[in-house]
């Protein structure tokens, strides 16, 4: 899974709709047979991030090509109770989760006697708790080993090593209480760095995709409230896959799809924003970290744009569309020249000068 792109891992218990969701996201055929360990090696798919601005800019510039920003989704096989001890194919699955940057947790919230549920009953909260328990126990093992190592380092190290041990002991205690690492609040930069070194599974942001038969169902919406409306959404995964397979023939049915909401939510939890470039050859959206400076944004295009950065000519997308052309925008004084300290905003249309 070596990639420079940020990745979202799709996880969940067996038979909850993970591979079907992956198929809908990427329109890439994967093995979705009704068998607990059908997906042993994770499938990786590059997914376009929806952005209405691209079509408008392409039209404005008469661009030959339009290239959206993208993120990678990874279909990780079903996690089972005891995974932290190697149950099922636990160790392999946990290592795949460790490599991704965020998690989409698919939770089954529909009844279907033909599709076996590993627990024998449908209980979304219980399913979430099983997965979180496995991730917490795997992290606890990591923290315990880190404490043991650090105790040896402290004997020959200084104050910095002692502080590191304090952090490791604190997170060990936190995890032992059954809490996720994302709920462990620290502000000291050194402590944050020490914690990051542990690569804890539960430190990754999580989006809950509740797999339902009807996204308008009041009981389903109630369940979403339990999971937190800001970090969950309702999806009829089977319908999403059918719409994806139909492509342009889906017609009005496309209005029933919520998959773009999931992609946008994933983009947000990764802490990404988009800047745009446009011209005769292509109009393109580029993914960069929030709060990136202009030179750092340039790196998305090529390392030279960061290293040899002189200045950037920037206009807000809305202003460029109102002006109707670069020439008119220049006449109106809407283009701004910015230096290396400028923090790029989502929707900036940029031309780099190197």
UniProtKB/TrEMBL annotation:
SUPFAM superfamilies: P-loop containing nucleoside triphosphate hydrolases, TGS-like. It comes from the Bacteria. One of its GO terms (cellular component) is cytoplasm. Residues 6-255 form the OBG-type G domain. The keyword Amino-acid biosynthesis does not apply. The keyword Acyltransferase does not apply. Keywords: ATP-binding, Magnesium, Metal-binding, Nucleotide-binding. GO terms for molecular function: ATP binding; ATP hydrolysis activity; GTP binding; metal ion binding. NCBIfam families: redox-regulated ATPase YchF. PANTHER family: OBG GTPASE FAMILY (PTHR23305), OBG-TYPE G DOMAIN-CONTAINING PROTEIN (PTHR23305:SF18). This is Redox-regulated ATPase YchF.
